[in-house]
Amino acid sequence: MKKPFLWMILSLCSWISWAQTTVTIQNPTNQQRSELVSISAQQLGVKAKTPVVVRDVFDIEQLTQWTHDGRLLMSVYVKPNGKATFTVEQGTPAAAERSWASGRMYPERLEDLSFENDRIGFRLYGPALQKRGEKGFGHDVWVKRTTELVLDDLYRYHPRLSFHLDYGKALDCYGVGPTLGCGTPCIIRDGKIVYPWCYQNYYILENGPLRFTVQADFPTVDGITEHRLLSLDKGSNFCEATVWYDHISEPVDIAAGLAIRPADPTSVVVGKDYVHYADPTIDPMRHQFLIYTALLFPDVKVTITQQESHALGILKGYTSDQRFHYFFGAAWSEFDVRSQAEWQSRIEGFMQARQHPLEITVQ
Q: Is residue 357 reached through a cis peptide bond, with omega within 30 degrees of 0 on the bond before it?
């Protein structure tokens, strides 16, 4: 009888201590911060994916999401050099009213693997397209002028509509074809791009409401397999990419690429650890707007160069025990980034945030 009683006392003490858990988010920069933060289950003192309720200082419940690797995501806003405080307790969270990031494979459109958030969307072409002999090597971009998730609507067949035309919310007007598109990785051999084909397998690890994450595997030359982990967060124009290759017998150069259009190669901007571009779309004369694209390398030293109608961030001497980590992104001049100067500012803010992450204290 003693053991059950002792267990009840210990459980009650644990519940009481959990009821007092406070998370403080400190902003070490003089810029307004709006982003996702993640807190490990170990920091919170619970098992991964334990149902929890997070509330702000107004006692309003906050949207959260457990990641596949045991971290609790929450969306925070913190003023310059300020702090935000939240309480965390075990309990059943309210159902999400909406999702801010989502994706799936679309068998109805040649096995496209497409995903989006409230700002932008991306597409990886599927095996069915490759079987037709089409060369769609790179990441495609979906531009949006709404925070709604719209990909299912875009893919829904309608005899009079096309997702290549602008009917008010979103469209596909970014040209990929036989290029690396927006942010696709590749192997470099003899100074030339070895273009990857379409994905062979994929595994959706997280599907909203705050983050979408997928791992896709790509067969390449010489029996090498590329693994690509892609993650898109609520509120971000930038998709996080982690890439690694199996069966590399000797060091090889790899890269991430950004397609540069022959019609307008002049607006490429190269920084120390980034490159961005004002893309005139696949049909500049008809569309009359721009898609701003970018590659960001905050955590790895690369050589940025231009060749074969691409801007490339090249990592030299890659070996199989490494992870190639970078970000690629896009924005539309018809939505939240109206000029390339604004895009430059958005990139600078993102890079500063990476260098000075929000500081998390759990008590």
A: no
